[in-house]
Design goal:
Length: about 475
């Protein structure tokens, strides 16, 4: 299918040349007019252990050329750091274009933590520990944009297509609401895909300049951001690799600083963290995998193909482990559900609006309002703190829906609020195509079965209950109404 990409017509952003149709697992970081990259610095102990100390800055100052817009570390990569350059040409880079045409892109996303709140609970119930995640959706968007640029340049795409792909990565989370996934789980209608065009409609200059500068309209961007077509597939990969690399780096870095505790659940978490460490000890530059993705024409359709199946398995296992430790951790979901319900309550009583969440730049104001309600006794637990000595919700886990519903029915008494949530199975990724142009589950069937079994362990049903017999007030009335609605 021919589509206009970057002002030209070509097969669904397929590569300009085909030198990489053969297996190639040793590509170098490609050159670009928009960034410069250095090999991992000799004075760093491990890849990804980057801090902007004087020695690093002195090293970076040896680069000639333009001032950097951003300096990024690339955790667990041979190539770090990366400078995103400020260009003094008539054609702005995608990075500059987004920053200049949508001022709220940096203003909003730099104030939204990647998971809505920087305080992540790892473990279960009272036997948990807390890990601070400092990275934001702004940093994640730059990571994803850079990953898209690297993939396309490594596959010899035309510069017009590279610019469009980079733009997709930079904009894919632009409509993220304040508090990120926490808000989306409890308040309907806040997904980035649903609100992407609405958000950009508030930036008419961007919409007007987009066809002139990139040769596409917002409708094309939305199609790819919804993971359709080749760019959509590549964006999904670039996105997953971006957040996994940075999250693993922060988790392992914070691992030495967490609060120790006892408990069987915590033992499982420690075992998963050790597995993460072992994977990265075996392959300390695992995320060079981004350079081992080829774009090939398969049965008349351009598809991404991973050249190195063994390294792909390592990445997929690492990602599944991160879902077990953090993304789909029931204790974290319980905490996020509570924060989301407080946000839904503030929305219900008119303290905030959906526009506040979709277009606002100051999550701190909402956090301050939550803290005020907690201090005045209107909320049972501080949403932004470590909580009270006893969690508001009690959590029980069940393997299936029927068992969870039986438990929920038994608990539905006037003095209780009860919520049932399904924690989904993480997608194991075993259907990704490999260098032989067939799915991973056919190339390495035993390894794929192991990944699928590990992924299945994340699926479970959680029942959260709270006894509010001695509680009264607007928030508790709100919870009772939501609980009755199922």
């Amino acid at each position: 299918m021919n589509r206009p990409i970057g002002g030209i017509s070509q097969p669904e952003t397929g590569p300009e040349q085909t030198e990489h149709s053969e297996r190639n697992t040793h590509r170098k970081f490609p050159d670009s007019p928009y960034y410069r990259v250095a090999p991992v610095l000799p004075f760093l102990e491990t890849p990804g252990d980057i801090s902007l100390e004087p020695a690093l800055m002195a090293y970076l100052n040896e680069f000639d050329g333009f001032n950097p817009l951003y300096i990024l570390d690339r955790p667990f990569s041979t190539y770090s750091p990366v400078q995103i350059l400020e260009q003094k040409t008539d054609q702005l880079s995608p990075y500059e274009f987004v920053r200049s045409e949508i001022p709220s892109w940096q203003a909003r996303l730099s104030r939204i933590q990647q998971y809505g709140s920087s305080l992540q609970m790892v473990g279960g119930e009272a036997n948990g520990m807390y890990v601070m995640h400092h990275h934001t959706r702004h940093l994640h968007s730059i990571d994803t944009g850079l990953n898209m640029e690297v993939i396309l340049r490594a596959n010899n795409f035309r510069n017009e297509a590279v610019r469009v792909a980079t733009l997709c990565g930079l904009l894919h989370d632009i409509a993220t609401p304040l508090f990120g996934d926490i808000a989306k789980k409890e308040i309907p209608g806040l997904s980035e895909e649903v609100n992407f065009e609405l958000y950009l409609s508030r930036n008419p200059d961007f919409q007007q300049e987009l066809p002139h500068k990139f040769g596409i309209g917002v409708d094309f961007l939305k199609e790819w951001i919804c993971n359709r077509g080749l760019l959509g597939e590549l964006l999904d990969i670039a996105d997953r690799m971006a957040y996994t690399a940075r999250d693993v780096a922060e988790l392992i870095g914070a691992y030495k600083l967490v609060l120790p505790a006892a408990g069987e659940k915590l033992k499982e978490v420690f075992a998963d963290i050790r597995d993460c460490q072992e994977i990265l000890a075996r392959d300390p530059v695992l995320f060079d995998l981004i350079l081992e993705i080829s774009v090939k024409s398969i049965q008349g359709k351009w598809r991404p193909v991973f050249d190195n199946p063994e390294r792909l398995v390592r990445f997929l296992k690492l990602r599944i482990l991160m879902h077990r430790i953090i993304y789909l951790n029931p204790a974290l979901w319980k905490r996020e559900m509570y924060i989301g319900q407080v946000l839904a309550f503030l929305l219900d009583c008119g303290a905030i609006t959906k526009d506040t969440l979709l277009f606002g730049n100051t999550p701190e104001k909402i956090s301050d309002e939550m803290s005020r309600l907690f201090k005045e006794g209107e909320l049972p637990q501080d949403p932004e703190g470590f909580g009270t000595s006893e969690d508001f919700y009690s959590l029980r886990l069940y393997p299936g829906r029927s068992e969870a519903l039986v438990m929920a029915d038994e608990q539905r008494k006037p003095q209780y609020v009860v919520f049932v949530k399904r924690i989904p199975k993480v997608k194991p990724g075993i259907d990704y195509l490999t260098g032989t142009e067939i799915p991973l589950y056919q190339v390495l069937p035993e390894r794929a079965r192991e990944l699928d079994l590990l992924a299945a362990s994340t699926e479970q049903w959680m029942v959260c209950t709270a006894n509010i017999a001695d509680k009264s007030g607007p928030f508790y009335d709100f919870l009772k109404a939501r609980s009755r609605q199922g």
